[in-house]
Amino acid sequence: MTAAPLLPRPRRIRFSARDGLPLSAAEWGEPASARTPLLGLPGICRTALDYQALAARHMGERRVVALDYPGHGESARAEDAARYRPEAVLRDVLDAMAALHLHRAVVVGTSFGGLMAMGIAVARPAALAAVALNDIGPRIEPEGIGFIRDFVSRDPAFLTLEDAADHLRRTLPPLGIADAAGWRRLAELTYARGEDRRWHPRWDTRIAEVVLGDDALPELWPYFGALAHVPVLLVWGQASRILSAGTVERMRRMRPDMALVSLPGVGHAPVLADPEAAAPLDAFLRGVP
């Protein structure tokens, strides 16, 4: 078996939200780079570490930053779960962009991170140079919400990392991960070893109550429309239960110039490391000065 390539470790940046909650971001590359920086916004139960592979491909050309939202990764957990409401997280993202001198950025947003990118387009449109949406659109299919809510709300407290990897392999939709090493790597990005020596989620499971409490989430077509001033690429897993073919088609009608990467047999959300997704995504990003 070929060993997985070593991915670059990020520099950690610590800062505070406006209410004092400690937050963390990961950074790769040179802050003084002349090219527009790249900002990675992860999914609802994901962290900044998901962007290591993307950073490895682009850190020689531009600064790459990825955020840990409140309650995720190395950012602090909130005492009140209401602190995780999307509007509060969007405010954190906007404040983080200011604090980290990301006054204009290329945003790669996976799932919830893509919704945050649309929110930036409404609240601070000049902060966006281009946006890549990973398996997310203005409409989230109700059939997928229940699965994600169940996944996000559970802490299986695995005894071993192999148990965690096996759980992900059996539970998640097809993601194009071909071997045990790939699932183990995903498990390492999803769970962290606690003081009890068990493997726990890298997020606060109360997030499910606040963000995914309703089976029908509001549609955000005006937010997608707010991206009209920037280039947009959509990565779509055709087996996704979050982003439907009908929603993709409507997005294409609204944005005929939107680049589309369709991944047959892949569910929510593509990991963006396989050549089928990575090559067109990288080409899109390198087209932004």
TrEMBL record:
InterPro entries (alphabetical): AB_hydrolase_1, AB_hydrolase_fold, Carboxylesterase_BioH
Keyword Chloroplast appears in the UniProt entry: no
Highest taxon listed in the record's lineage: Bacteria
GO molecular function: hydrolase activity
Listed SUPFAM superfamilies: alpha/beta-Hydrolases
Keywords: Hydrolase
Limits of the AB hydrolase-1 domain: 41-279
Protein name in UniProt: Alpha/beta hydrolase
Protein species of origin: Caldovatus aquaticus
